[in-house]
């Protein structure tokens, strides 16, 4: 995809990312605030069967990842929700799907930044909001420096956050043999409710599509990176849930604002709690970095297609969509000033699940019309798996609550109105130049 710089010279995004860089970025953006912060509220409803809630959420993510992989091979471009849904249902529906995911990215970044501020405040006593705003500002500097450096930083932070989770897993291993991992009093309903909340912990695999124009051989490497990141994070999450509930009863986890730090403190004392707090800072910072990276590319992709103002598609001399980046930084900062972690997580889930449902429906529609490639088994998979994905996304949406479904639908209507305004503006300019 070619666009213009501020000087009018044509430029394109650079293909510099390998399969393993993109896979590591996927693991990095999935791991983060979800497991570090939301494991407590999830334990309140899932009880000792918390591991099953993570597995269920992982299955839902994997079904949708299949749709992303198949559609990504057909159209490997930035702003994947817009591109994939437009492929099946046209640009109007595609724009709404892309808009919802963009809102979800920025809202999630704001909520995770607040999570960072919470951990930082716990360690230092500083203001949660100020720490979150400083993180967003520093993230903007890192992203402006270039995608290669941003992904390199993300890989380094991923190593730190993965070390923290590995630490929790190792601490809990001796207790696995005597643990009770059966369902709580809430039964499967409690597990499903927990899965609807911790689905937030899986958000991020979808963002890999926003790197399609900056990776080598995206038709082959994008599907591989999607499944590598989903599989790796699901195994890590299940192991963390098993260890956490083996050491600390689910009821105690549910009352903690830093549940994994509580696990470390119960085994090794206050020093370990501080170490886990530092690792949580790396995890949340990494998630914010990659969500804002994806959000800026999503705006760039839709602006390049003309469904957002084309000024948002302008690149700097270093091929960074700088205007789009400034927009996502400003919106995230505004949300930080008024956001609430739990509420924004629920809203993010609702917005993203609507968009995921549209992506799954797109592959299903294309497969039913004979527009996907492959043999009989692949065609059956292209019908069955996205159909299951639609049903599971719908179930998680309903479980999350009608309040958040209504809010997500309202945001979709706002996006449709913005699209109409952009279309009218373009028509007016065309008439004026005729």
Count of separate DSSP helical elements: 17
> What global shape is seen?
globular
Order of helices and strands: EEHHHHHHHHHHHHHHHHH
**CATH-defined architecture:** Up-down Bundle
CATH superfamily: Amino acid/polyamine transporter I
Strand order of the largest sheet: 1-2
CATH class: Mainly Alpha
Give the percentage of residues in beta strands: under 5%
**Within the CATH hierarchy, at the fold level, what is the topology?**
Amino acid/polyamine transporter I
Helix content: over 70%
Describe the structure.
By secondary structure, the protein is mainly alpha-helical. The protein has one domain (19-423): Up-down Bundle (Amino acid/polyamine transporter I). The chain is built from 17 helices and two strands. The chain has helices spanning 19-30, 33-37, 39-46, 50-74, 80-89, 91-124, 128-144, 147-172, 187-198, 218-247, 250-254, 259-268, 270-304, 322-338, 341-368, 376-400, 402-433, and strands at residues 2-4, 10-12. It has a two-stranded antiparallel sheet with strand order 1-2. Strand 1 and strand 2 form a beta hairpin. Helix 12 runs antiparallel to helix 13. The protein is globular, with a radius of gyration of 21 Å. The two termini are 27 Å apart. The relative contact order is 0.20.
Looking at this protein, list some descriptive labels:
mainly alpha, Amino acid/polyamine transporter I, 2 strands, 17 helices, 76% helix, 434 residues, 1% strand, two-stranded antiparallel sheet
Strand and helix layout:
Layout (H helix, E strand, L loop, with lengths): L1 E3 L5 E3 L6 H12 L2 H5 L1 H8 L3 H25 L5 H10 L1 H34 L3 H17 L2 H26 L14 H12 L19 H30 L2 H5 L4 H10 L1 H35 L17 H17 L2 H28 L7 H25 L1 H32 L1
Antiparallel strand pairs: 1-2
Helix pairs in contact: 1-8, 1-10, 1-13, 3-9, 4-9, 4-10, 4-15, 4-16, 5-6, 5-15, 6-7, 6-13, 6-14, 6-15, 6-17, 7-13, 7-14, 8-10, 8-12, 8-13, 9-16, 12-13, 13-14, 15-16, 15-17, 16-17
